[in-house]
Amino acid sequence: MQRIVVLNPKGGSGKTTIAINLASYLATRRYTPVLMDFDPQGSTLRWVRKRRPAQAPIHAIAAFEKDSRTTRAFQLRVPDVATHVIVDTPAALDPRQLSDMTRDADKILVPVLPSDIDIHACSRCIRDLLLVAKISRDENRIGVIANRIRRNTLTYQSLIRFLHTLGIPIVATIRDSQNYVRGAEIGIGVHEMKSYVAQEDVAQWVPLVEWLAGSPGEAQAPPGGSSEGAGTAAAAGQPPAAGEPASAGEPVAPAEPEAPAGPLGPGDSSQALSGEAAATAAAAGF
Asked: Looking at CB atoms within 10 Å, which of 93, 193, 217, 260 has the fewest?
């Protein structure tokens, strides 16, 4: 079972969007993902409850709720059949909580938006992961997601220059797309939309799922699945194609799960980036 933590103490960075769309991707490929929602807003939990019975199942745990009648371990128990646990963390997470939140994490995803405030918050987050949570860059457990990107803008160029100084891989560049907004409203992910509607969005997830599969022994073939082809299918814009067609301005009908498409990806094709030690220290606040 792979544990993936989506983390950034800065609110509004897109943690829930990343978490639910990753769960959607896994579910449509016959994995058994579990969404563990630590955010008191409960956005991830509400998204799961909007899903229809015909859609690929996703188990959700309301980790933000406290029940005095049961132990914490019992409340956070994960089904035995789970293949992945995706943890949606809250905003304003105290640096001292990072160790507990990331201790068992196989991968840590840090989404960051293209703004000065978010870049500064990301630098502090990476600093705390390295110095407080004691996660080494060499472990390849931390990946940055450039989120809600509009290319050919000054803010985008500034963000990419900053990320190059961190020595942390940029595992995905996700565009600013209304498909994510509509999907959150009706309980689906971009991988469950018609290919002609979300093809560009789906293609941007290929390097991310390949990076997640990069750790030996963590990528397990789903029941009846082959060991190749998931990334290729996503790049070609071939998510499950079922449901009524929808235009760009209308809610997108959910699709039924397709046949298993193999593991998360064939290898690590992320952009491994590094900078000079002085630049890293200056950008990350060391």
From this structure: 217
Residue range 186-206: mean pLDDT, rounded: 96
Quickly list DSSP for 42-98: -HHHHHHHHS-TTSPP-EEEETT---TTS-HHHHT---TT-SEEEEEPPSS--GGGH
What's the predicted TM-score (pTM) here?
0.75
pLDDT of residue 178: 96
The separation between CA 98 and the C-alpha centre of its own chain, rounded to angstroms, equals 18
Band (pLDDT 50/70/90 cuts) for residue 23 is: very high
Query: Rounded to whole angstroms, how far apart are CA atoms 38 and 25?
Result: 21
Which stretches of the chain are assigned E, i.e. beta strand?
A: 2-6, 33-37, 59-62, 84-88, 107-112, 142-149, 170-175
Q: What's the rounded Cα separation, in Å, for the pair 262 and 264?
A: 7
Q: Residue 29 class from Cβ within 10 Å (0-12 exposed, 13-18 middle, 19+ buried)?
A: buried
Q: Tell which residue, 18, 281, 275, 271, has the closest CA to residue 169.
A: 271
Going along the chain from its start, the domains and CATH numbers come out as 2-284 (3.40.50.300)
Closest Cα to residue 189, out of 44, 91, 53, 1? 44
Each residue's pLDDT tens digit, 130-173: 999 999 989 999 999 999 998 888 888 888 888 888 889 999 99
Q: For the sheet containing 2-6, what is the strand order?
A: 59-62, 33-37, 84-88, 2-6, 107-112, 142-149, 170-175
Task: Report the pLDDT value the prediction gives residue 70, as an integer from 0 to 100.
Answer: 82
- Per-residue confidence band for 49, with pLDDT thresholds at 50, 70 and 90: very high
